[in-house]
Structure prediction request, 306 residues.
Amino acid sequence: MNIGITGGAGFIGAALATRLHASGHTVSVIDAFTDYYASDLKRERAAELARLGVTISEADVHTALNDWCSSGQFDALFHLAALPGVPGSLREPHRYIKEDIDMTVTVLEAAKRHQIQQVFFASSSSVYGEQTGALSEQQATGQVVSPYAAAKYSAETFCNAYQNLYGLQITTFRFFTVYGPSGRPDMALYRFIEQALRGQDLVVYGDPVRDFTYIDDITRGMEQALQARATGTFNLGANQPESVRKIAEMLGTRYGVAVTYTDRREGDVSMTWSNTEAARQAFGYMPAVTLTEGLERMITWHLGRV
Ligand code: NAD
Prediction:
C-alpha cells in the first residue's frame, strides 16, 4: 500500500514508518521539524528513515498537505502531527486549537478530496479526564481537565462527523503514555533516564500512575488495525498501570541519584489505565513488552548517546 504519515519524524511516527516500510509498504512522511523539542532528534530519525528508503517531505501540514497528498496517491493516511503535552496547553490554549483541532480538520478535508480509503488519527488517553480503573472507550465523555485533552477530544468528534457525513473510514487510536528508544524528551521516563545517567536528581510531580506502553506494542497495534481495516475508536495501552514515583525510585537507587517530590502539575490526571479489549477483538491487539523489559531497551538506547 501507499501510506502517508504526518509527523513522521516524531517519536511514534518514525517508529511506525520504520515498521510499515519493513512490512513492504511504500511509506512517505511529512514533518515540519517543529521546535516543541530539539529538532536534532527529529532530523536524526528522518535521516535514518531516508536511509531505509522512506520518502521525507519537510513541510507544514497546514499549507502543504494537498500537494503532498496529490503526489503520494495514498491508500491510507496516519495523522500523527500535533502539538503534544499537557503543560504547554495551559499556557497557550489557542495554539493547541490550531495544531490539534484545526490541523486534524485539514487532514480530514484532504482525505475527502483525495479519496483516501483509510485515515488513522492519533488521540490520547487524556480524553478520559480524571477517572479510576481500567477505562474502556465509551467512558470518554468530554469531562477533560486540560486544553490538550479538550483539543484531542474535539478532534475525535470531527473525525466522527467526517465519517458520518462523507463515509470516510476512520480509526482513532487513544495512546497511553508511550515510551521507548528515541522517545520524546519532555516525557517523564526520557527525562529520568537522561538525568540519572548524568548523576542529576530526579523530580517527580505529584504521585501519578501511568499505563506506560512500549513503542513496539503501539506500532504493532497500528499495523494490525491497518491490516484488519478496523474502524472506530480504540485504546492502545499496556493494561499495567505503574507508579511514576516507583520507577523514579528504582532508577534513583540504580544510578545513585536522589528523587525529589513536588506538586502535581495542573492539568495532569492522577491515573491512566487502559482496557484494550476492543482493540483485541477488532484486530488482535495484545501488548507484549513488560515495563521492565521496555525500560532496559530504553536505557540501552540512552547509554549509547551519553
Ligand atoms: P512528537 O512530537 O514526537 O511527533 C509529532 C511530530 O509532528 C513532530 O515531529 C513535529 O515536528 C510534527 N509536527 C507538528 N506540527 C506539524 C505541522 N504543522 N506540520 C508538519 N509536522 C508537524 O510526538 P509523538 O509522541 O510522536 O506523538 C505523536 C502523536 O501521538 C501526537 O498526535 C500526540 O498528541 C499523540 N500522542 C502521543 C502520546 C505519547 O505518549 N507519545 C500519547 C498520546 C497521544
User: Anything to note?
Assistant: The mean pLDDT is 97. The longest strand covers residues 118-124. The chain has one domain: 2-176+213-237+274-288. The CA atoms of residues 204 and 261 lie 5 Å apart.
